[in-house]
Amino acid sequence: MKVALAANGAGAKLKDSIKDYLLGKGYEIEDLSHEDIFIATENVVDAILTKGITRGIVVDDYGVAPFMIAAKHHGIVCAPTYEDYTSSMTRRHNSTQIITLGANVTAEKLSCELAENFVKTEYDGGRHQIRIDMLNREV
Amino acid sequence: MKIAIGCDHIVTDIKIKAAEFLKKQGHEVIDVGTYDFIRTHYPIYGRKVGKLVATGEADLGVCICGTGIGINNAAQKVKGVRAACVADVQTAVAAKENLNANVIGCGGRVIGIGSIEYILEAFLKAEYKPTPEKDALIAKIDGLIDDNDCIENDALFDEYLKKWEEGYYHD
């Protein structure tokens, strides 16, 4: 599986750790980083919406700005992820394609595990799909 | 302040406690639901909170579901909303100071009411600290959604609710 990964300067170090970790687990990485968090996030959104990539991770200082940017898009569900429960549940229930991580919030080892939980967990579908259809009707 | 608050059926009890806390702090609270534990759908309440904030009927919004993710995505998809789904005070304050966030959210199954009270208090007290760079980023975020019917069309989700009633969505 290929994962789109991006960071700005504030998230670069943590992003590189996640990159090495996921490469070591056998995932392919497309690094779409940019100094401007708006461009970095838009790069990952574009990879999900137009390039057939199913998982994206954006890293900055708090994970808030990339969430605000990605979640505005039709067809995107984005999850700021700070702990284990969200890292997998947001795949199972929300079909989330992009998580955001904050270098000021989660440390390196936990962040790598959150990223792995996210990329390896599948969507449950079923009753949850009505909520995704509703999100896609909003925008 | 006038604060809109919403949740799904997973965390209604947590939402009620958060609303009580806000009232005790002297705020006017508009609770958009849900009001019980009967299965419903988070986009209904995220959109309602987002609409009240985007139209200026509420100063700020609070969105809580199990992880906070679903309902805050629903709020964020309303034009004019800048939502932050957080698990700690520092992130909540940064969201206000740097991005002038107008909706704060969290996961009611992720953090407890003590953390939620700290986050709400800090978020409401924090103020946006503008710079030209921050203003430009906020303008870009707000500009990502073209004008659409999400705010004015209260029948936005009716077709999906009808399909739900008909059994279209099942596990």
Structural description of this entry:
The complex is a heterodimer of chains A (139) and B (171). Chain A has 139 residues and is α/β, with parallel strands linked by helices. Chain A has a single domain, classed as Sugar-phosphate isomerase, RpiB/LacA/LacB (Ribose 5-phosphate Isomerase B, Chain: A), CATH 3.40.1400.10. Chain A contains six helices and five strands. Chain A has a five-stranded parallel sheet, with helices on both faces. In chain A, helix 1 (12-24) packs across helix 5, helix 2 packs across helix 3 and helix 4 (84-94) runs parallel beside helix 5 (108-120). In chain B, helix 1 links the parallel strand 1 (2-7) and strand 2 (28-31). In chain B, 45% of the residues lie in helices and 14% in strands. A five-stranded parallel sheet of chain B has the order 2-1-3-5-4, with helices on both faces. Chain B has seven helices and five strands, in the order E-H-E-H-E-H-E-H-E-H-H-H. Chain A binds chain B through residues 37-38, 61-65, 67-69, 71-73, 77-80, 82-83, 85-86, 89-90, 93-94, 96, 102, 104-105, 124, 126-127, 129-131, 133-135, 137-139, and chain B through 41-44, 47, 66-70, 72-74, 76-78, 82-88, 90-91, 94-95, 98-99, 101, 107, 109-110, 137, 140-141, 144-145, 148, 150, 156-157, 160-161, 163-164, 169-171.
Layout of strands and helices, then pairs:
The complex is a heterodimer of chains A (139) and B (171).
Chain A: E1 2-7, H1 12-24, E2 28-31, H2 37-50, E3 55-60, H3 64-70, E4 78-80, H4 84-94, E5 98-102, H5 108-120, H6 129-138
Chain B: E1 2-7, H1 12-24, E2 28-31, H2 42-54, E3 60-65, H3 69-76, E4 83-85, H4 89-99, E5 103-107, H5 113-125, H6 132-142, H7 158-165
Keywords:
heterodimer, A: alpha/beta, Ribose 5-phosphate Isomerase B, Chain: A, globular, B: alpha/beta, five-stranded parallel beta sheet, 5 strands, 14% strand
The fourth-level CATH homologous superfamily of chain B is Sugar-phosphate isomerase, RpiB/LacA/LacB
Tally of DSSP β-strands of chain B: 5
Low-confidence stretches of chain A: none
Let me know the largest β-sheet of chain B. 5 strands, parallel
